[in-house]
């Protein structure tokens, strides 16, 4: 919203029908989008946003180092007259591999500065301990508490294999960003808003005068972000995520520039859909408990997943694990709200309607 109270409606350049189409796509004056390929089965690309600045371009997110991402970024920047070494700074929305690791690689090669939300510190430190001490990811143990023993074993095997072949650079950023801080990019002032939930230190960047929100993975147009899938998850990620959605909903509406998916005209519209989705998931989880389910795994097994309405058994190991952990987060929120009780028996948490 502008100073006179009117909602800003930016002039948006026409976007390709397929948001993953390679190339350099203008968004608004001074902002371009470069989709980079990802080495993932369920997610084809990540958007890197290039913001023009006198000292060199500033990137919002960076992509996954390796695969074809670096070459695609180099070509995309080249279309704007830039080289990789011209990148002045990378502002990263959160410390997942597909957002953070290429930023660290660019820093190693060219000295580009990297900034990250301060709330990511625990997971950055946990990833460093993985490299130095072999610390294992917490997800298998969380799955065992959810009653998903076989899935926990499969996930432990998968994560061990991923860790062994992961040679991406890792480390702390050059600067930590706090909620409410402003990041100067030329004449732009990007307001940092802490939006924990997807990860505990996720941030979005708001260009209020231009009517833009760089939403990272917090608000995505086509998919529901995973909750708390990180090396050091917080105890109540869903509560944090819903609070963060409401925070964004209370801000003036804006053009949504997401990390995955097309540029979309209204952040508010998608936030409302995500809030409804989680309310429906909470109701469905309670219904499963009333029908006799007891653990997060049993509840998740009784619910449909993805837009294809798949069963839990239809999902690949990682996606099935995320599904179970998401339901555990929903059940824990119901406990906090007094609708459900919980008790631990033999290392497994069992839930019942209050």
UniProtKB/TrEMBL annotation:
This is MBL fold metallo-hydrolase. InterPro entries: Metallo-B-lactamas (IPR001279), RibonucZ/Hydroxyglut_hydro (IPR036866), Sec-metab_biosynth-thioest (IPR050662). SUPFAM superfamilies: Metallo-hydrolase/oxidoreductase. It comes from the Bacteria. The lineage of its organism: Bacteria, Bacillati, Actinomycetota, Actinomycetes, Pseudonocardiales. Residues 45-260 form the Metallo-beta-lactamase domain.
